Amino acid sequence: MESTIMREMDYRDASAVLARSLGLKNSPVAIRLAMDKREIPEGMEKLDRTMRHCQMVNLARREGRVFYATVENHECMGGAWALGLRQITETLKNGQFYFKLGKFESTASCTRTIERVPHVEPGSTYATLYAPLEKASFSPHVVLIIAEARVMLKLAQATLFRLGGRITSKFSGIQSVCADACAQTYLSGRPNYSLGCDGSRKYSGIEDGEMVMGFPVEMLQEIVDAVRIVTAAPGSKK
After folding, report:
1. Is 234 contained in some domain?
2. Segment 178-214, tens digit of pLDDT
3. Average of pLDDT values for 57-73?
4. Strand order in the sheet with 67-70
5. Residue 238 and residue 230: Cα distance in Å, rounded?
6. How high is the pLDDT of residue 2?
7. What percent of the chain has a predicted confidence (pLDDT) above 70?
8. Looking at the chain, which runs of residues are DSSP E strands?
9. Which pTM was predicted?
10. Which of 5, 104, 197, 207 is placed for a possible disulfide with 109 were both Cys, Cβ 3.0 to 4.6 Å?
11. Tally of domains within the chain
12. Is residue 108 part of a domain?
């Protein structure tokens, strides 16, 4: 499969630096939103079951699985919509879905939130590709890290290392792994931090003390270099 990013990157080395410097318990996850089946590496395994996107991420980060999934593999309608695999369902669009789950005071407040959920153009994604970063044989769009708050602190410092400024994150307590960390990062080209959501914590093994962060692969080398420095800095808590 042809590379879709100009810079040559050693994903195995990058993953090793992140794991070592941040003390990660599990691998960073490489994710690609493939628009065409020709973007899937030859011989790559297709998922043989139906599950949520956040569970697919968990297979890659905890079990080291490398695979792809098409729309029929995605159990969560909201996740499939956010990632561009399908149209939004009517109950999600009109606010009934999350209202019935008790997440909002009214269907109107739910609709206001859904209208602001970042999502890739429906139908533009043919398949979602997953791999532990060190095993990625494709050019990912997003690198996703799930880890405790201490790690997120270092990632935030690494994000600001070169230019400084402030961290601005956007999330709503729903669709954290699909919309917040993947779709939003893919669309904006900027890192995003999220608290996780009830669904991802229930189904995908995100622990109580863990958060979610996604950044575009174009920033991978910058993040790796900065993480190496900020974690070894004199002012960094060991």
Report:
1. no
2. 999 999 999 999 999 999 999 899 998 899 999 999 9
3. 97
4. 67-70, 127-132, 29-34, 142-148, 210-216, 192-194
5. 11
6. 60
7. 98
8. 29-34, 67-70, 127-132, 142-148, 192-194, 210-216
9. 0.94
10. 104
11. 1
12. yes
